Amino acid sequence: MRILSWFLRLVAFLLFFGLALNNLDSVTLHLLFGAEWRTPMIVLLLVVFALGAVLGVLALLPSWLRHRRRGSAAQRATQTDVAAAKPAADSALPPSLPIDRPIDGV
């Protein structure tokens, strides 16, 4: 399985490397106010991909934080319920069964 994983990684790397070699032509991106940016096409593709990934993470961030906050609140509520259900050590009843090991070396 490990060899198959490395083989698939090698194939993906070679495909992306071939894509990069085939997209070395210079392109011009016309920005606002007459500004232009000339760069190889693969650089532009990588920049657009990175911007899309960052915008996707930023779009999911509020939902992720909301779920995280709800999860921690539920965990705190569970911990307080468990703590309230445990009897206090002072009110513990003595054991009803005989102790079969010596206490305090006696």
Structure report:
- With 106 residues, the protein is mostly helical.
- The protein has a domain at 16-78.
- The chain has 2 helices and 2 strands.
- Strands 1-2 form a two-stranded antiparallel sheet.
- Strand 1 and strand 2 (36-40) form a beta hairpin.
- The longest helix is centred in the middle third of the chain and has 45 residues, at 41-85.
- The radius of gyration is 32 Å and the shape is elongated.
- The protein starts with a helix and ends in a 21-residue tail after the last helix.
Radius of gyration: 32 Å
How can the largest sheet be summarized? 2 strands, antiparallel
Q: What percentage of residues falls in helices of 4 or more residues?
A: 55-70%
Question: What is the average of the pLDDT values?
Answer: 84
